[in-house]
């Protein structure tokens, strides 16, 4: 089972990254511990069971279900081709025969003498899993996949759409407060991951799609514009399976919100490097956030597990981001954590933190803050 | 054995809540409660850790020793330990089921009712006539990976072909259980008994098949209990065995662990039966909203899977539409800005409304989530479909089909709300108003909220089967429910009908315990609150022309009602409630109604 929901997005400059790559069903793993892999290398494959077609022979030939076996020409376990004759009645004096042909290529899985149904199973569907990131095979999970180890920068977004993608990082905005506009996106950005500041409009995102940009990383996007991209209203934040050329990763939230300073600076530092990104998001128990992984050739990185343990929880001095209005998107440092409940304007009694935002002290519910994890 | 103390836990998906109930001064009362994060997921992967932590909090608060190392001391020895320990669970996503029936609106619906009643989430209802092709059904079964499947279909002695066909589809899909690869998927067969041997032949080897009594032995009768019991058994035997730490937890408990909603439903059913009243209970959570009802002694539960206040808040917006949410907001707001705000709550589900404006918006969305969930509930809580009715001459002009909703708002006696937005609203007036606006009770209806959501623990307590303690546990559950669990908000009086503005809709005479009397004329469009605590009040309700307040159009009602933390709310807005389309009139009306009950006194100041 995955981790439970914990607020706090990771913005790590130099960390150990362990990435599990698993098959949906057991299969074969084609790499060994210590192998160096590139993002596109296939590391494991399997066959998903083929689709199943059910043909009601009894109905089609107008015979009793109990007599179906006698009219079957193709027997259980035999291979059949599309349009091949699989069942036929004797007819009258050899004439007026009724017959049924197979609707697909496949194997006769079962013949039922109760319902008169024949199950034809199509050929298995091959599935392959690639390495996704550059790195070294750290562990082989028998018949299921591998864990790939890499060192580099790791940034989590708050929400994304589109699945895995990769490309060179290209900064489009000079500052974290500026927006990506339509004219900033050019055909030469094809296959790249473009990074902006506070916002990308629907029009600009469409231009990115048109230019076959691999990914967009930006502070904010309008919730109501998602409908036009997805073709439906996003009711629950479970994404990743959308068929989009351009994955979109939003680092702060919906609306125009400047990208966190640490996030922006880190991406800027990595400009020109190859990154692997994934827009998949799942906000339920077992939370998945979109991610940007930028492997760097170094082994001096800190262990991310140790690091996150050290950073977990909010203490005085913690760098935090306000995640709900008022002050949404602002970053400040914790000055005080009073233990007693305080009454908010909404009259809700909550535990608060006193935060210094640009020199001003403000009282904010602790649950409306997230710790910015940096290294 | 005299039951002196009970420790009960509810292992939710995020929090494990423990309560201690003790026999004090001749009655059972909730004395202490504690909570701790649930520890089903990594790095702990052992549910008992969270149970011990929550229990330790009770130990600290009460000064009573309950744990001996990592064991709960049972039975109570002097002042240490507790006589019994019980638990419910919805951790790890609860019990997720798929059900199948031959005709979707008949055996399919009965199977769904049985599964929901047992406390499960129904992921899909397969039926021979659901419009999907066999390969589509197979793909769906493979995708879903349920914890358990309930297969039904056909009346006893009827045709077997269709239900066997469904079994063949299941076999072709070869479904795998959600948790772990080392056991076969439990399948319950509760259909035409004539088909049992064929079902066994088709599914016996592939699945862990269990056969129980037919859910619909004849068209006119539903027989849900054997299936519900079987679901509970298999939940314990198979599903719970796979979840981390549950084997240990099961060895600790003095009664089988129940799925959380199953326990809540059992409690509501018991309360309704004991008082002989009609009840609607609602639990609005972050992802889902559960509604329970008992009308005409029939229990129903529905789960609106994607109507919740955080994870699925955007789906409430999508299903209700923006204008329907905005009609509850008493100020102008930029619509695009509002959708972004709601979107941000979805992606950051643990945040709380800091400003009053944010609170008002959240409560507006809650009204829509509750309203939509209740519509789904009304559509599901129906008489059996497919039953032939004898018609008399009086039916000639008003033919009612089978499958009529059991939910009758005029008959409804009590609404119990629970879930963060209702139980923890900063003002009880807000909870009462949300319940009234979304459920639109008619006539005389009591309103209450569950203080700390202890209905699950009380539900499992009320269902202990050990004969020696069963009766005492039931008494304890009911006493604690009355005294500590329910917060009585008061009573809503809502005349039904529509008049022109300011016409008299109702005259109310109230006689209080201290002998004082109040005589109030209610005009159409008025909302009036009478502050009175939880005490009996004699009420004489005289409806206006063409208005019904429970005894029929124009008929007077004499009844005893109760006040509460909010008091008595007389809702003269008429039914169905209509909110003005024009923004200025709507805002003025909302403010007037809000001020009448002191809902948001600081708004606009």
Question: Secondary-structure map with pairings?
Answer:
The complex is a heterodimer of chains A (375) and B (605).
Chain A: E1 11-22, E2 28-29, E3 36-37, E4 42-48, E5 52-56, H1 57-61, H2 68-71, E6 79-80, E7 85-88, E8 99-101, E9 106-111, E10 117-121, E11 125-130, E12 135-141, E13 145-156, E14 159-161, E15 164-171, E16 179-180, E17 192-195, E18 199-200, H3 202-210, E19 215-221, H4 226-230, E20 247-254, H5 261-269, E21 274-278, E22 291-295, H6 304-311, E23 319-322, E24 331-336, E25 342-343, E26 349-350, E27 352-357, E28 360-365, E29 369-371
Parallel strand pairs in A: 15-17, 16-18, 17-19, 19-20
Antiparallel strand pairs in A: 1-13, 2-4, 3-12, 4-11, 5-10, 6-9, 7-8, 9-10, 12-13, 13-22, 14-20, 15-21, 21-22, 23-24, 23-29, 24-27, 25-26, 27-28
Chain B: E1 5-11, E2 15-24, E3 27-37, H1 47-62, E4 67-68, E5 71-72, E6 84-89, E7 96-101, H2 104-117, E8 121-127, H3 134-144, E9 148-151, H4 161-173, E10 186-189, H5 196-203, E11 208-211, H6 225-242, H7 246-252, E12 258-259, H8 260-275, E13 279-284, E14 289-295, E15 298-304, H9 313-320, H10 322-326, H11 335-347, H12 356-380, E16 414-418, H13 420-423, H14 428-439, E17 443-450, H15 455-461, H16 467-485, E18 486-494, E19 504-511, E20 517-523, E21 527-530, E22 536-543, E23 557-562, E24 567-571, H17 583-597
Parallel strand pairs in B: 1-6, 6-12, 7-8, 7-9, 9-10, 10-11, 13-16, 16-17, 18-24
Antiparallel strand pairs in B: 1-2, 2-3, 4-5, 13-14, 14-15, 17-18, 19-20, 19-22, 21-24, 22-23
Helix pairs in contact in B: 2-6, 3-4, 4-5, 8-15, 9-12, 12-14, 15-16
